[in-house]
Design a protein that fits this description.
5-stranded mixed β-barrel; about 170 residues; two-stranded antiparallel ribbon
């Protein structure tokens, strides 16, 4: 019994990577990718062409279950002035058609954590007919009937600068 325990400990110890192995692995990791389509977006940030707050339907669906994630993005990495190449293409804001690849990461900086932790509220508006609420997150064309869960319940990621591209059609 003792021999088996020592052998198990030896195997486990050899399986634990050294600090240098972990550092080398982390530095070469590519960011995870999410394949899907934008189905909702925060129109306030979108029309300013600086901050994007998106709901992406992950494709393909898993066993007829629709999955969604939230993706935030600051054009130019939050640095001014914003370069035109850092603005997301308008063609990505269509809820049908081609699939897009979003290269994302977990929120790490204070700003990224803040962006993921905050859901912009709907906007109350006073009209002649009374008070109405303008939704802050609106559907993209073709995704008006998507059954999106509450945005605050979605896992949130940060889009890497230059991290949006059209998926290749096979």
């Amino acid at each position: 019994m003792k021999m088996a325990l020592f052998m198990l400990l030896g195997v486990l110890a050899s399986a634990v990577p050294s600090v240098s192995q972990v550092a080398a692995t982390e530095s070469t990791l590519s960011l995870p990718e999410v394949r899907g389509r934008i189905v909702r977006f925060d129109w306030g940030g979108h029309w300013s062409n600086v901050n994007e707050d998106l709901v992406v339907r992950v494709l393909p669906d898993a066993k007829s279950i629709r999955r969604y994630v939230r993706v935030t993005y600051q054009a130019g990495g939050g640095e001014a002035p914003v370069n035109a190449k850092d603005i997301l293409p308008f063609s990505a804001f269509v809820g049908r058609g081609p699939v897009w690849i979003f290269r994302v990461k977990k929120p790490l900086t204070t700003q990224e954590k803040y962006s993921c932790g905050r859901v912009n509220p709907d906007i109350p508006v006073e009209e002649d007919s009374g008070k109405v609420v303008v939704p802050r997150y609106i559907p993209t064309p073709g995704a008006e009937n998507e059954p999106v869960p509450p945005i605050e319940t979605l896992p949130c990621f940060v889009l890497d600068r230059g991290g949006l591209k059209l998926a290749q059609i096979h």
